[in-house]
Amino acid sequence: MVTKANKKAPKPTNLDELRELIARESERLTPRMRDAARHALEHPNDVALNSIASVAAAAGMAPSAFVRMAKALGFDGYSDLQRLFIAPLQDAVKPTFRERIRHYGGEQALDNPADPAEVLQAFSQANIVSLEHLADDAAALPLKQAIALIQSARMVYVVGLRRSYAVAAYLTYALNRVGQPAVQLNGLGGAIAEQAFGANEQDLLIAVSFPPYASDTLAVCEQVRAQGAKRLAITNAFLSPVAKDADLVLEVNDAKLLGFRSLTSALCLAQTLAMGLAFSKRTQRAKRAGSKGRGATPDLHDIDC
């Protein structure tokens, strides 16, 4: 449970501060409080616009779990916490539009979803906002640690199913192109557990998953953890089930329109990891060769990533 000292700390004033507080205090919360916090962070607009009874019913939990979670984090109660979720929507366009594009920074109005040009314009703008947030958070992401974790692995296993499949496929391709052995766990023929069977303490699993989290991805995470492999999670929140017990977590958010989710930020992060690994390997080769000049290192222009 959260201590009295933690309760006296200033309560968050925005959702970013709330995410940081929940990440810090995760171990101090009860399992039900963590579930309530995770649901709130994954469904911010539902929390802002619906009653506690509706939110709790959607989460399959008792309303009291959300109340206890709010108080444990320093709020007077659920209504006090809810005001934090309402604030980002107060300056938004009133909900007279037919659909809304949700993204890391709030919501994007979409007046005519039947017009593909308008959808493209609105979705592009939402992706720009998501990328801007990713750029703002870049310094806080453990990118160097992630690259070191990848580079130290004998074999990198990459799993990403459903909408995350494209990110996993690209990352596997890019890692192999820069000289890091990698294999994608695609579950072909229902054999995903067998594909991950060889992962051990010398290996790394990179798991890419976003809500709704693929059950096979979660199962593989548990499997390789039992086999001793390290795990890097690329997901939307530190409290996501994919991040549980991971050695390292990279948090990334993309825009969403109904059931369609963008891959822009996630792919940008995957490219960063591959490029960072390529330059790290090049630097190490230069040091081993005892050269200080760029000309003695392999050219990366033909990597084709």
UniProtKB/TrEMBL annotation:
Q: Which SUPFAM superfamilies match?
A: Homeodomain-like (SSF46689), SIS domain (SSF53697)
GO biological process: one example: glycolytic process
Residue stretches making up the SIS domain: 146-288
Q: Does the keyword Hydrolase apply?
A: no
Among its keywords, does the record have Transmembrane?
A: no
One MF annotation (Gene Ontology) recorded for this entry: carbohydrate derivative binding
Q: Which Gene3D superfamilies match?
A: Glucose-6-phosphate isomerase like protein, domain 1 (3.40.50.10490), Winged helix-like DNA-binding domain superfamily/Winged helix DNA-binding domain (1.10.10.10)
Q: Where is the HTH rpiR-type domain?
A: 16-92
* Source superkingdom: Bacteria
| Keyword annotations from UniProtKB, A to Z | DNA-binding, Glycolysis, Transcription, Transcription regulation
InterPro entries in UniProt: Homeodomain-like_sf, HTH_RpiR, RpiR-like, RpiR-like_SIS, SIS_dom, SIS_dom_sf, WH-like_DNA-bd_sf
Q: PANTHER family this protein is in? A: GLUCOKINASE, RPIR-FAMILY TRANSCRIPTIONAL REGULATOR
Protein name as annotated: RpiR family transcriptional regulator
Q: Which organism is it from?
A: Acidovorax temperans
